Amino acid sequence: MSRTLFSADFCAPRGLGNRHVQTLLPRFLPLPSLARETEIINLPDGDFVELAWALPAPTRADAPVFVLFHGLEGSFDSPYARELMRAASEMGWRAVLMHFRGCGQAPNRLARAYHSGDTADAYWVIGQLALRYPRAIKVAAGVSLGGNMLVKLVAEQGGDGLDLAGAIAISAPLDLAASADALNRGFSRVYQRHLLHALKRKVTTKLAAGPLPITLSARQLEGLETFWAYDNAVTAPLHGFQSASDYYQRASAGRLLGDIELPTLLLHAADDPFMPADLFSRLPAPADAVRLEIARQGGHVGFVESRQGRLGSWLARRVAWQLECWAAHLAPHHSLAAGPNG
């Protein structure tokens, strides 16, 4: 792993280094202003996903494309999504976020939702972008759940299976079972409760609209208090898994790190409260195409830094640097260029 492992240059501001402070702080900072245009992309199975395109869009047909996949119950309005899309847009990239099914402005059509290993919709959208912008460099980024999904997709498709110059995964829960355990300990239960509340609210709405392939009453649904319980009773039967254990094993991307051929940047904080501290020691060594940067602090999708006396997103700055690097020097499917500190 030493050939692919680097120390991230993130430095938390004095007094703001606690992992929970870093995780929560982006929600208390001003949300970047960014106009969008919504597009509905119909999927082969009759469902749809909603795309959010950053405005103003570049006028050049060959402008590079940045496609973002959000985290669990995230959206265009998530602080990291606004920061990353604005950064890409200001660099002249065509920035677009794919909302997972049911995460946009309207509920999805089918009796199902989305999950951490659900690569088919992203594969379809990237394919549509390839047809629409055949001459444009394209880079995909995924955050949290979206990061695990993207790593799994990239590993499955090999070096030539996607029209991408590179991929970036941020705070990706690459071992889903270990993350479910971590989120059921200490203060991290606060995040678990918040996320499960949002998920259960959506399932309640879908149950009221029509039958689902789950055998739960509203009271039983409300009683699911851990990710293990929820994924066993809801996620698994909705998406063809036998159990939560089966889902976690098959959907976790960490086991595939050694198979990645596409240039891929992984950004991770050692103190991420959604994951065990020894996450990467549990996983296979990444392939040479992978650059893994681990910061000592940063929390889960936090990485709030101070520059010139103002708090801001280190993630947006680091991702912008990578986009600039790949756009300037990287033809699709070549080796990953060295990072800013190695």
Report on the structure:
- The protein is built from 10 helices and 11 strands.
- With 342 residues, it is an alpha/beta fold.
- Strands 1-9-8-7-6-4-5-3-2 form a 9-stranded mixed β-sheet, sandwiched between helices. A two-stranded antiparallel ribbon has the order 10-11.
- Strand 2 and strand 3 form a beta hairpin.
- The protein is globular, with a radius of gyration of 19 Å.
- The two termini are 14 Å apart.
- The model is unreliable at 331-339 (pLDDT under 50).
- Belongs to the AB hydrolase superfamily. AB hydrolase 4 family.
Q: Roughly how many Å is the radius of gyration? A: 19 Å
Uncertain segments? 331-339
- Element string (H = helix, E = strand): EHEEEHEHEHEHHHHHEEEEH
What is the helix tally? Answer: 10
The neighbouring-strand order within the major sheet is 1-9-8-7-6-4-5-3-2
- Overall average pLDDT: 94
Strand proportion, as a percent range, falls in: 15-25%
Largest sheet: 9 strands, mixed
Instruction: State the share of residues found in helices, binned by percent.
Output: 25-40%
The gross shape turns out to be: globular
How many beta-strand segments?
11
- Helix/strand/pairing category: alpha/beta
Distance between the termini: 14 Å
Family: Belongs to the AB hydrolase superfamily. AB hydrolase 4 family.
Active site: 144, 272, 300
GO molecular function: monoacylglycerol lipase activity; short-chain carboxylesterase activity
Keywords: Hydrolase, Serine esterase
